[in-house]
Structures are given as structure tokens and as C-alpha cells.
Amino acid sequence: MYRYDEFDHAFVSSRVEQFRDQVERRLSGELAEDAFKPLRLMNGVYLQLHAYMLRVAIPYGTLSSRQMRMLAHIARKYDRGYGHFTTRQNIQYNWPRLSDTPDILDELASVEMHALQTSGNCIRNVTADHFAGAAADEVADPRPYAEILRQWSSVHPEFSFLPRKFKIAVTGAERDRAAIQVHDIGLHLKKDDNGRIGFAVYVGGGQGRTPMIAKKIRDFLPEEDLLSYTTAIMRVYNLHGRRDNKYKARIKILVHETGAEELSRQVEVEFAALKDTELKLPEADIQAISTYFAPPALAPRAEGWESLARWKKTDPEFSRWVHQNVQPHKHPDYGMVTISLKPIGGIPGDATDAQMEAVADIAEEYAFDEIRVSHEQNLILPHVALADLEPIYRALVVAGLATANAGLITDIIACPGLDYCALANARSIPVAQEISTRFGAPERQAEIGELKIKISGCINACGHHHVGHIGLLGVEKKGAELYQITLGGSGDENTSIGEIIGRGFEPEKVTDAIETIVDTYLGLRNDKSETFLEAYRRVGPQPFKDALYGGSAQEAA
Amino acid sequence: MVDKVLTANRLSDGISVWLDASGNWVESLQQAFIARHAEAVTALEATGKLAFDDNKVVDANVVDVEEVNGTLRPVRMRERIRAEGPSIPYAAGYNGLAGPNFAA
């Protein structure tokens, strides 16, 4: 993985000391809140309902054991013994004292981490496929390009005060696991007919109050043009993006109002002027960054096949976990392990300090010291020998991290919601917990198959509800919580925005409504191989409306 | 008139606090000073602004409360959650400050 050079170390350290001075001046009263607020936000410090919240960047979701141990240490020393992994592949601490934040950032810097650009109208943490560098279906590892974008966008003077925040995601496979079509820029790494590496470029996707699927404005952009073309897009956005209305300030609105064709033309004009400037990426630089992400030397471990078959026969729970949480690796003797942070009835994305330590230990002993955070709020061990799956599973069981539900109905994305968030209108976590408990039986989950439920506690859609197969949006109506259900959303290579199915449900009725939807699906699917999403796309919303509202148009309106 | 209290977040650690009758910022809503008439509300608003200007607290707001069986309860759910903590057990030793009877 990427290691800081001297410049990186000096830069991050100087920012910590700068922020320490700012915090001291704030606490002494020398700086007023109005002046301090943008400074703390630039360093990832928010004010939420109960306390400050610190959002720490995990670039493209990649961590070493040493870094994970530091996250555990911070949870233990400065917080309440846990952290929350987010849909942006970051981690949030919910209870840090403002006075401690410079020390926290100092400790993070010691393991090459920071909280810069995790807030504000700048280019945020670049996200990537959590199986990057390991997936069997990958064309190339997207992380070197994500790292190049990170370096280019860090305190970029031209793009530090954009009309609104800006999110870039990169995937390296046909199967999109990074939800690139709901990002401001989505990059799909691919090869052309001559075997050259480049990108399909998508622009103007996003969720929030105006969900939009990104438009593809380039089918193939050669890799050396990554920064010049991205700069061209940013320039067009910076110039023409709306600054008069924050709800219309994202690039998706500009794309929508300008039209993809015209926007693409404007980008190409800028690009023509930038193409052969210093922004052109030298092959040597791409190679230099790529070496940081070279895959570990994976020795043949063919003995794993026999041991795995034996263990699976003797332990059905282990077998279920392997079936659900282990995906094929590009090396046949290895697998990619999803460590579920969705225990049945638990809080999606939360991990205790002890669990973080356990994952760090396991990664160090068995998984080449590599950990990923997925945008689905789970942790990943990307390189695991099949021969080591059994001891890893045992260790995960001890840590309470062996829930076999990756991709199933209880693998729910949920934002912090009104239990923590100052922007939320309704709670997300208790709703997720109740649904998880209702459907928690392994046999029932297996019967239902792949089904992604995503819950947001407000229209900002941090819980990605628009692209949930079943999406739940919490709203406040007459002082009470109400949950609007959307169906048919998807955040993969066939991205779709979910459709509102009808009137909302009160908190005590929402799990029953989900059960009605699930039972309707089970009753109408062609066979067990037809997933919920496939069935929904085949039959449309009507059978679900009928089941939920008795076919009454008035009820469903 | 609906009863009101003054709440904010303490500058140094961000923890939710309420103004008590002695002018101290306390961590329990139940100890908050209750404004029952317009003049008292005006005084609370002025106190909140002063505390903000003095860099003692941030996000100072006067919020509606009601007394239920002798216990103060904010009218808005957002404020109930602020006052009682996350409505869920969320960490070792923090079993959901609201307890099992958290009233949505």
C-alpha cells in the first residue's frame, strides 16, 4: 500500500500543528465560532447532536494492521470504545472532545492517516472497489489511480472552494462494486482493443434530495490523461456550477440543466488546452505509484482445497460463512473474506476497539497485513489462503465478527440517523436492528437470497437508500418518524434509482411492511435463482403495492 | 405558553448541556431552568447568546418541553434524543441512555 514520502509527512504534521493552534485559540476565546467552524470542518470535526464527531479518511478504504490498531487505540483512549465505518469507506468517532482532537490527529499522523477533506466543498476521499487488487474479475487495480487523484486533489488551490462537495469513485472491474454511477465522477478502469489501460468516465451521478444516475461522457480515456481530463471537468463545474442555492450546487444539477452532450463539449474544450501540459501523467509516475499496490507474493496453497472441503463437511456454520462471506480471488488457492459488521440485531458499521484489534491481528497473521473498508460498511481481508479460512473463522467467532450474511437481507446499510446526526429527521439504527432481528434466522436469509436494504435518516441519503433494492427514507411528519419505502434501486453496473412505493410507514409498522414485500417477492419469483431485484424489474411495483396497500390507489398515492 | 429550556453544546467537548436556575450549564435536562412566560424566554435567549459570545457553548437554542409525571420531556424527538442519549445501547457501559421505555 501507499507509504508517505517526506513531503506527505511534513505536510500532514504541519496541518496538525496548524489545527492545534487553531483549537487553542478557539478554546481561549481568541477565535469565534463563526471563524473556527470552517477550520474545524476542514479537519473533519463536526458538531452533532450529543458531541463533536471526527471523520477520519481511509483513502480508497485501504488499511494496514498498524493503522487499524491506531483506530482502535483512538476509540479506546479518546472515545467510548468504538467507531463507525461509513458508506464513504471512512471511520467516524462520535464522542471526541474538541480539546483532544489535535492529539488524535497527531496520533493518526504517526500511522500516515488524517482527517483532511472529509468535510467541506472540496474533493472528498476517493473511494474504490473494496476488492481492488484481488478480485478475479478485475481488469486492473483501481487504487493507484485513486492514490494519484488523492495526491492531486489534496489542498488543490483551485478546487478547495467548489460550489459543493465532490466525490470520485473508481472501479477496476465490469462488476461495479464502488457504485460509480452515483458519484460526481465515476471512473471505470478498462482496456481498449489494443490492451491500453484507460477509463470510461461518468459524470453527474449522486443521491441526496435529487438522485441522478451519472452520464457517461467518455467511453475511453487513456490513463495518462486522467488528471488533465478530471481537471477539465472540475474547471467546467467550478465555473458553471450553481452557488446561489446549495440544493442545486452539485455537478449532477449542472449536468442535468446543461445536458450531458453540451457539458461534454465544454469539458473537451478545456481538455484540449490541458491535454499536453504538466498534468499529463508520465508512465514512470504511474508505475512508481503502482508499485506501492503490488499484490503480495501469493505462494501456491493448493492444500487448502482439501482442508476446506473437510472443514465444511464437519461444521455447517463454517460452511455457511464460507459460502456467504468468501469470494473468489484471482489466485485459485485464495479467497477474499468479508468480515460482516452487521451482527443480527446490531448497529450497522460499528466496531469496538477490541474488534478492530482482532481484525488487525488476523490480517497480520493470515492476510498479508491488508484490510479494506467497504462502502457497504463491512471490513474485507482481500488476500486469504483457503487453507487459512478455518482459523480465521474461529478467531472471528471469538471477536463476534463471524456473521454469515454478506449480501443478504440483514447486511443492511444504515446511516447514524437521528440517534447521532444533527441533520437527521428520523432514526435509522433501530429500524435496521428490528429488520435484522426479524429476518435473522440463517435459513430464512438463505431462502430470500441477495437483497440489499439501505436506510437513510434524512434526504441527504448517507445510507444510500435510493440504490437499495429496498430503500428506507426516514422523514419527520407532524413531529413523528415516518419511513418512506422505495423499491428497485441498485448501485451496481446497472444502476437504478428506487421508486417510491406509496405512503410511508410508522416505525412500529415498517418491519411488517418489509416482511410483506419480502413475502410478495417469494410468492412471485420464477424460481430461487431469480433475485429480488430481478423479480422487481420483471413485475414492476404493482404486486408490491397491492400487497402493502390492498390495491387502493388512494392508499398507495 | 409551552414551557421552554435553554440548551447548547459545551465548547470544549461538545457534550449537550442545559442551563440551570443558578446559571450553570449542566448535563441533565431534568435540572434545567424552565421558562414559563415570555419574559423568562427572552432572558433565556439573551443568556444563550451571551454564553455563545463568551465562548462557553455553541449551538445554543431555546426548546419546547413538557412535564410528564414530574419528568421534563422535550416536545421534539430530536431534542428528546439529545437529552436522553442515543435511543439504543451503543457501547460497553452505554446501554442506551434512554432505557427500554424511550418514548418515541
From TrEMBL, chain A:
Q: Where is the Nitrite/sulphite reductase 4Fe-4S domain?
A: 119-271, 411-530
In Gene Ontology terms, what is one molecular function of this protein? 4 iron, 4 sulfur cluster binding
Cite the entry's keywords alphabetically.
4Fe-4S, Heme, Iron, Iron-sulfur, Metal-binding, Oxidoreductase
InterPro entries assigned to the protein according to its UniProt record, in alphabetical order: NIR_SIR_4Fe-4S, NiRdtase/SiRdtase_haem-b_fer, Nit/Sulf_reduc_fer-like_dom_sf, NO2/SO3_Rdtase_4Fe4S_dom, NO2/SO3_Rdtase_4Fe4S_sf
SUPFAM superfamilies per the record? Nitrite and sulphite reductase 4Fe-4S domain-like (SSF56014), Nitrite/Sulfite reductase N-terminal domain-like (SSF55124)
Looking up Pfam families in the UniProt record yields: NIR_SIR, NIR_SIR_ferr
- Please indicate which superkingdom the organism of origin belongs to: Bacteria
Nitrite/Sulfite reductase ferredoxin-like domain residues: 52-110, 330-396
Question: Can the keyword Metal-binding be found in this entry's annotation?
Answer: yes
Name of the protein described by the UniProt record:
Sulfite reductase
UniProtKB/TrEMBL annotation, chain B:
Identify the InterPro entries for this entry: DUF2849
Pfam families on file: DUF2849
Name the record gives this protein: Nitrite reductase
- Taxonomic source organism: Ensifer adhaerens
